[in-house]
Amino acid sequence: MENLQYPIGRFSYQPYDETQRQAHIETIRKLPGKWREVAARLSSAQLEQPYRPGGWTARQVIHHVADSHLNAYIRFKLILTEEKPVIKPYNEKAWAELEDTRKTPLEASLQILEGVHERWTTLLESIQGEDWQRTGFHPEQHREISLFEFLALYSWHSRHHLEHVELVLRTKAGPA
């Protein structure tokens, strides 16, 4: 079950260099296009199929990434404009169960990802030197997290959830 829940492994922050930072930014830049490609390959049955027993459906995963990355973009802006802001956690599971997640066409979240990622990439490319060390306090983790770590986390998050939907694409779905 661990391999299905964390198909690319769990996130573990390790300090990294400029080359890796650019690779993380590139992952975030390319994510909307990758989601468009993956979404186009999903049948209506696969869209409603969970990637693992007890997991979210492909639809929920795609809407979750849009929700999550909206929050990520705001977190970056708060950290860049305030002194050690408190990062607002949210109940991802509850958000994934709301009606907008169940009923909204994927196109809405694909458009959100395109717009947010365009702005976010511009913001990421503008961050210089010491600003990468700026932090926000995450109350659920009881610690400060730097922009450097958040960048690595959301790069991983992007790849993590893409792989969840790839798992759905590799399994046989029931009738539509």
State the distance separating the first and last CA atoms.
Answer: 26 Å
Give the name of the CATH superfamily.
dinb family like domain
CATH class: Mainly Alpha
Helix content: 55-70%
CATH architecture: Up-down Bundle
Number of strands: 2
In this structure, how is the largest beta sheet organized?
2 strands, antiparallel
Q: Please, what is the oligomeric state?
A: single chain
CATH topology: Four Helix Bundle (Hemerythrin (Met), subunit A)
Mean pLDDT, all residues: 95
Structural class: mainly alpha
Low-confidence stretches: none
Based on Cα principal axes, name the global outline. globular
Helix and strand succession?
A: HHHHHHHEEH
Percent in strands: under 5%
General description of the model:
This protein has a single domain, classed as Up-down Bundle (Four Helix Bundle (Hemerythrin (Met), subunit A)), CATH 1.20.120. 64% of the residues lie in helices and 5% in strands. The chain is built from eight helices and two strands; from the N terminus they run αααααααββα. The protein has a two-stranded antiparallel ribbon. Strand 1 (135-138) and strand 2 (143-146) form a beta hairpin. Helix 2 runs antiparallel to helix 7, helix 2 (18-41) packs parallel to helix 8 and helix 4 (58-81) packs antiparallel against helix 8. It is globular. The two termini are 26 Å apart.
